User: Fold this.
Amino acid sequence: MSFSDSELSKILPANGPNINEAKKYLNKYKNENICIKVGGSVLNDESLFNILIEDISLLSKINFNPIIIHGGGKRLTNKLDELNIKTNFIDGLRVTDEKVINIVENVFVEFNKQIVTALRNKSSRARSINSKENNIINVKSVSKELGFVGTPNKINVENLKKIVSESEIPVIAPLGLNSENQVFNINADEVGTAIASSLNARRLLIISDVEGVLDKDNNLISEINSSKAKEMIEKKVILGGMIPKINNAINIADKVKGTVIISGKKPHAILFELLSDKGSGTLIKKWKNLKI
Assistant:
C-alpha cells in the first residue's frame, strides 16, 4: 500500500518529519521488525508517554512492525517505597527475594496492560506478553545472591512472529519463566537485545534519557561502528550507564542491522529516526560501509 501526500499529512504529526523525507523511508522499513526498548522519563512523563504511544501506533499504520519492550524500574521503586520494602543492588541489579518478585510481577504486568490499552485507544491492535499471559521468554538464574533475577535463555520466536503476522503490536514486559514456571525479573535492556537478535530485526531503538553517544567535546555522534565504539569505551570517552547499552549493541551487531540510542525526551524521536534524513540519536552498526 502506498500513501499519498494528503494521506501522510493526516497521519504524520505537524511537528514531526516532513512528508517528502518520510516518503523515502516508507518502503525501506515496510514489513520490517522495529524493536523499541523503552525506558527512562518517557515511561513516567504523561505527555512524553502519550506521544510515544501515538508514534508507535503510527508506525503500525504505515506497515512497519513495531515490537515494544518496556522497563518500569521507577514504578517498581515507588511501589516498594510505598510498602516500606528496602532492596539492595548488586552490579546494578535489584536483589529479588520471594516477596519482592511477587510485587515486581504485579507492577510490570499492570503497566504492560496499560501500554496495551493505550495503543488500543489509538486504534492499534496490541497484545500483552508477560509472565502471566503469552509468555515467550525462558530464563535462567543470574546468581543465587540475586534471587529471582534471570537472564533470557530462549525466546519463543515462532509465537512472537505469529503475533506480528496478525498485525498486532507485541508489548513485552521484562519478566520470564524458568523450566519450573517460576517468575524471574529481567533487565529490560537484556530483553530488548534478546528479542531483537532472535528476530534479526532491522532496528533496535533504545529509548532512554540520553540523546545518544557523545564525543570527547560532548557533541552527538550520529553514526558509529562497533570497532570505534569499543575504542571509545577503552579510552573512557563512553562512560557509566552508556557502556552496557553500547556493549549490548556490539554483541548483537551480527544479528540486528542497526541499534540506535535515542532520547525519549525529544518529541517524535522515533519518527525522526526512521522517517527523516538526519535521524535522531546514535546509530551503532558493525561494518562501516554497510548500507542499512
In short: The chain has a mean pLDDT of 91. The chain has ten helices and 14 strands. The first strand starts at residue 33 and ends at 38.
